[in-house]
What does this fold into?
Amino acid sequence: MNNQPTLHWIGGVDGHLRMIDQTLLPGEFKEIDCRDVESVWEAIKMLRTRGAPAIGIAAAYGVCVGMQTAAGKEESAWFKRLDEVADYLATSRPTAVNLFWALDRMKRTAVALRGSKTPVEIAEALLAEARAVNEEDRQICREIGRHGAELLADGMGVLTHCNAGGLATADYGTALAVFFAAAESGKRLHVYADETRPLLQGARLTAWELQQREIDVTLICDSMAAVVMREGRISAVVTGADRIAANGDAANKIGTYGVAQLARAHGIPFYVAAPISTFDFSLPSGDGIPIEQRDPREITHGFGRQTAPEGIDVYNPAFDVTPAELIEAIVCERGVIRPVTTERIAEVTGGGS
Ligand code: MRU
It folds into this structure.
């Protein structure tokens, strides 16, 4: 089984970020090194590292890489560079709020030390903070798994969409953590993994992760979800999220909303598993969630081969929003949020504080 972490830091303050290049999986397992902030930005943009919590961790380490060129600068120039680095990383992808959460956290760490520590010491503190973001996510995923496993029973068939596994987090995952923890407690599950068009995170990554952990998994095309539900193969759906509004409306990989509607039509509970860092309490509902639009070539030239006529008009939103009323419960590190209402979310999460 692969035991390499999704992302980790090599060396001290002058070190670099190493990550699994997820675009090559499952055919090739390769790690890449990011030694400047531009390569971290590119890795996030091109989905070499992806999944909301992993994007946040990459951004935190990306700040550390980006600040290396400011070593030796005096304080005001150093803080100017910090703003530039954070603003630049913030342009890599718009939907996963963990990116902005991590950048804010890094900036707050630095600002709190301004005046009392030297830039050299603050750079050390930033690396410690990035490592803490990574390590906390490891723990949080275990907690999500533990709480979520309670929702599943031995022998169940379950369905997931996209990849919310170890590759999308520090390790262990959110939606997949629920399956891993249930399996570890002796419950036998059969997972149906949607392939997840257009970039196949389900086929390439979820199927791979589940196979590695020896969990029964069947890969289906996205368009087969309805029939497997109708055939009675699915007792629960669990997905991750990229941004959850204060009322529980949840953005996740394109196609998730359709899966939630299908689950409702078949009387199947639809669960979302996500850390509190994925909640955006500044948004009262999902209407304000920015949805990333991606390159049309992801649809017309998937994996190097042209599959649509030249010049065709394409719509390629990377995410959709599932309204809270379709979500049976949200599993976070503090427990199971049910019913999914603004009040109950605030009660369990503490509003992010
Ligand atoms: O475009 P991606 O691959 O970054 O999309 C990822 C997802 O939609 C995941 O389900 C979500 O980030 C949760 S990851 C624990």
Observations:
- The mean pLDDT is 97.
- Residues 47, 50-53, 96, 162, 164, 168-169, 173-174, 201, 239-242, 252-253, 318 surround MRU (CB under 6 Å).
- DSSP finds eleven helices and 14 strands in the chain.
- Residues 246 and 281 are 5 Å apart (CA to CA).
